[in-house]
Amino acid sequence: MRIVDLREVTAPIASSIANAYIDFSKMTLSLVAVVTDVIRDGRPVVGYGFNSNGRYGQGGLIRERFAPRLLEADPKTLLNDAGDNLDPDRIWATLMKNEKPGGHGERSVAVGTIDMAVWDAVAKIAGKPLFRLLAERHGLTANPRVFVYAAGGYYYPGKGIEQLRAEMRSYLDRGYSVVKMKIGNGIEEDRPRIEGVLKELDGKAQLAVDANGRLNLEDAIAYAKMLRDYPLFWYEEAGDPLDYNLQAQLAEFYPAPMATGENLFSHQDARNLIRYGGMRPDRDWLQFDCALSYGLCEYQRTLEVLKTAGWSPSRCIPHGGHQMSLNIAAGLGLGGNESYPDLFQPYGGFPDGVRVEDGHITMPDLPGIGFEGKSDLIKVMRDLAA
Ligand SMILES: O=C([O-])CC(=O)C(=O)O
Ligand SMILES: [Mg+2]
């Protein structure tokens, strides 16, 4: 049993949306295929992975550094003790050989993308949905019903409050109970946007707001004072992701739930947020996204760090809207997952036929991560592996 190839293609996921920090006019992602010599149902098992939006494709790093490391390794060193499957942690250690600690950034995206494909292959070789495999490995009971919320509400050229309200209405109509919109371009602009959306929701769903790290301490506090007039689901990523002091100070001005963590890419950074960011385990939310942060092998270490600090995995609702985090949520008891109903296709979203009901989806029993159940996505994946 061995990995015979690792392929990468950098693909566009560009759109004309913008948050308070970046626009997505040149956004890309890496799609990878880990091809094995294991045969299931008459064809070789191929694991697939991609990074989520917000960081760009990592073709250079994957092709120059990580794929060669994996393909040059003695295949036996990448297997589990029983020799009947690949071992994700041994593969992870091989990928990260001769990498210094610290400075977690783009390489964490490259490794997270490959790691997703490896776990997909491992669950397919085991013949199980990844969420069931994960639950078994951790001695837990899987729960295929997962909370999801609808993320959107971007700034968009020429987009007025009426369009924003219509967008949010469409999420309500599709079964979501929590929706999210962007803020951070200025209180004068954002207050009427928030009030318009709340009016549209009319108490039938809750609203989360996301500043994408745009605000300095003074502005983050000014926003906090404005936002606490409204019953929000959460106030997300007010300031720079590494400014733990800002996050900690904000709690004095904002008693309601806050969320952050999508731009922290290692368990060490997650631990610093918990140690120094003043995050409150009884109400705040952690959004670490394995596809940007060294993958599920690292995410399991992050969950250990949280446990040690007294945090439940149910406080985690990852960023990114991909099926990998849906599997982790269903298998390891996270609080849910993000979803972008109208963006980043064909990568994000759910297998065909999966519907949102009362803000939840139910995972179908598909081997691996479940990409084979999403016809537009598996088509581009198979094109890469062909
Ligand atoms: O706009 C983005 O970069 C995505 C984002 O923050 C989120 O989904 O929370
Ligand atoms: Mg965000």
UniProtKB/TrEMBL annotation:
* InterPro entries, per database record: D-tartrate_dehydratase (IPR034611), DgoD-like (IPR034593), Enolase-like_C_sf (IPR036849), Enolase-like_N (IPR029017), Enolase_C-like (IPR029065), Mandelate_racemase_C (IPR013342)
SUPFAM superfamilies (UniProt xref): Enolase C-terminal domain-like (SSF51604), Enolase N-terminal domain-like (SSF54826)
Q: Which residues cross the membrane?
A: none
Q: Which CDD domains match?
A: MR_like_1 (cd03326)
Q: Which SMART domains match?
A: MR_MLE
Please name the Gene3D superfamilies in this protein's record: Enolase-like C-terminal domain, Enolase-like, N-terminal domain
Give the Mandelate racemase/muconate lactonizing enzyme C-terminal domain ranges: 161-257
Q: Which domain of life is it from?
A: Bacteria
A Pfam match is: MR_MLE_C
Q: What is this protein called?
A: Mandelate racemase/muconate lactonizing enzyme family protein
Per the UniProt entry, what species is this protein from, by scientific name?
Answer: Roseomonas populi
